[in-house]
Amino acid sequence: MQTANQAYQKSKFETASPGELTLMLYNGCLKFMKLSKEAISNNQIELRNLNLTKAQNIIRELMVTLKTDGEVGKNMLKMYDYILHQLTQANINNDIKAIEEAEQYVTQFRDTWKEVIMINRKRQHGGGQA
């Protein structure tokens, strides 16, 4: 069963569009932030660190793949930098509020990105109709 799930996950990543991969990164980041908050609540320091480090790595990946030749890209880079700062502070200070603030921004980015993907799919498959 585990190998079938692993094969499915691998296939999902290999066949995903760049937009879908970005959406997966946002969702993964949110998952790791949620797990980090639970670890803080349960005083599981190693688990908190592990999950916050994973969330930070995702934000770093989003930062290095971001096109910053326009104003929107430059502003997003600043936001990613702020999110990364909040996650770092959360890890240092065991701070759920810092995670929640970062979580709000990542959720907004994820929701916006999901909407963009849906709009693009509608355009590609039927001239604007679902």
UniProtKB/TrEMBL annotation:
Similarity section: Belongs to the FliS family.
Superkingdom of source: Bacteria
NCBIfam families given in the database record: fliS
Keyword Ion transport annotated: no
Gene label: fliS
InterPro entries assigned: FliS, FliS_sf
Provenance organism: Anaerobacillus isosaccharinicus
GO process annotations (BP): bacterial-type flagellum assembly; bacterial-type flagellum-dependent cell motility
Alphabetical list of SUPFAM superfamilies matching this protein: Flagellar export chaperone FliS (SSF101116)
This protein's GO CC annotations: cytosol
Family matches, as Pfam families: FliS
Lineage: Bacteria, Bacillati, Bacillota, Bacilli, Bacillales
Name assigned to this protein: Flagellar secretion chaperone FliS
